[in-house]
Amino acid sequence: PHFCVNKNHHLTAELHNPIYHFSTKSQHHKMKFHYPSIQALPRKQPHLPNPDILDKYPYLEEPSDERTKKFVKEQNELFQQYIHGEGFSDTTSNATHPTKASRQLHAAMKEEMEAMLDSERIGTISRKGNYMYFSRNSGLQNQDVYYQMKWNPDQKSSQNSLPKYDLKSAKVFFDPNKLSEDGTISVGSMSFSRDGKYVAYGLKEKGSDWQTVHVMNCDTLEEYSDHIPHCKFTSISWLNKSDDGFFYTRYPPGTLESKNEYQKIYFHKLGDEWQKDECIYNSTEESEKDYMFDVTVTSDDQYLIIGVTDGCDPVNKVWVAPLNEPTKITKVVDEFKSGYFYFTNDGSKFYFRTNADAPRYKVITMDIDQGLDSAKDLIPQHEQDVLEFAVASNQNYMVVGFSHNVHCVLQLRELATGKLIRDVPTPKLSSISTISARREYSEVFYKVSSFTLPPSIFQYNFDTDESELVYQTNIPFSIDEFESKQVWYKSKDGTEIPMFIVSKKGTQLNGNNHTLLYGYGGFNISLEPGFSALRLFWISKFNGVYCIANLRGGGEFGETWHKAGSLLNKQNCFDDFAAAAEYLIDNKYTNPKRLIIEGGSNGGLLVGASVNQRPELFALGLAHVGVMDMTKFHLFTIGHAWVSDYGDPSKPESFEVLLSYSPLHNIQKDKRYPAVLGLTAEQDDRVVPSHTLKWMAELQNIAGKNPQQTQPLMLRVDTSAGHGGGNALKKKIESEVDKYLYALRVVDGLKYEGKEM
Predict the structure, then answer these.
(1) Is 684 in the active site?
(2) pLDDT confidence band for 242 (50 / 70 / 90)
């Protein structure tokens, strides 16, 4: 591509032992970019109420199209050349060797990021039959390794103590790193048989959601010949007589961008070819094409429970079948009105966590032979807190987790009555990321972390009624210099919104701190406190402030909060984010020249809409794998499931609202944008790359031609990577380093301080 940059930024590389300083000094001279050219081939969209809303770059939906390949190649070249200073003219006096300096910085930043990540990380321990399992990463492995150790209840130091497990003595159970040289094969779905004899697990390649299910013997680690392709968002549940096989779900074969429809439920008998698997339920009706199934075999080996969803809302149908006749399905709940989430049963008496007439959730019992009319409250809805999970354990108990103002409250209760036995203490401003328990076992493991507490695994002791620390991550740097707090601010309509702020202790509120504001605001997903070395890298190495805004649309305060930021109310989410930025500016954390916003997936949409609506508030927008075209998101892969949160573009009442904020369709030609970086990945088959490709093509074509536009609008497309889950660690590090190199070029006064190379 042809491009040039006239006077604006210059790079300085000053070596001060032992600190390596790298900064940009914005001169605010006129800058002109020549972006890669792209041909517009406008096409009407007949599925819309207004078909004259044109799709200007339809061929960017085809990854194999030579025009798409050329566009991606040239955009990646432009981005890499820009962050390394190659080919850009810069006449400022102290920018003598920008390429050498940036290459040196790239290596230094990568090394220090790896150093902060290079510590052992353990996943939550769980018991499966006669073994205990956990995942482990030694530090810089691309994928976590799964470990196995014998369950031995006699390993006690005293009568009331818990068994002491030596995690170091566990043996490797499964190592996905050995399956590819570049670490891009990862584990997807994983289900152990209840007796612990077998495991069925899915393998995904290059970050794709598609997976192939395999089977292994847990005693001998023998790989069986069984394999099942065409699986995506796959649910697996074994018969208790595990030698027989398991139920699972799969789609018809598909491509990167094809719609995922007509999922089916099958039973796989061990040793059979997958083509012989019995179909238990086939959603052939047009009205059921979007159905997705979750299958569960009850522990008493009496029932198959089928949870049915047709979108991302926390609502479902509940179907039940006797295991001896699994195709004889009774539709206990057969409308998408509320969510019923099973966690145990006593015969026909089932226990559910539900939001039926309870937007903050409650626990009920229901006799499935009698249906919804038999439902009775066991734990009523809390007046303020959200009931996030309930699991049965040790026969007669349940462990319940609440979210109180976006941090965790853990309780032990009687299963039969719901009566509170005790609160289980948890650290301040923390969250529980995973919990492992079964009704037939007394083992309860849970993992807790906060912004300044590395992940810690506890086991609850029913004999002493206390939790005992089993494992704590030993990080290779001190966390004593960091602190976190929660603040509340008012959004545009006066609603109080919480936000977490993490920084170095003693950070001065002088209006000049480089601040990164992260948001999501959708799909009932809560952004809770959690430990991240990558967040602390920003705070430590850039003297930055990191903020997470808990926007409406998320699940932080239940379904009412979720609905307040979705469908026709989606604009509230963007207003909440802008108000968070204004709070940080008004309270002297930062200023618009030093405020970066970031989000991924639905959060990428958030960033795209925010730079359109309020460009004056930000210095840089980082939009990862965003949903940028709100007129046809529902036509690709699993996008039809998002209609529950966004609305249906083909319906007039939704179309006008979607069009009003769609990032692709609201680019301002006469406003000066902050620097923008759109990030996507070639193998993303959830939010397909064409969202970001089209958005960036249009952003460069419209905003990029504005004579006032002095900041770059660029694109980074990753290879051998997908939406995020399962991506190799080295790919994540590369993306993070490139992101910060870009920020150093475009954000006023930003400095990187790290060890000298």
Answers:
(1) yes
(2) confident
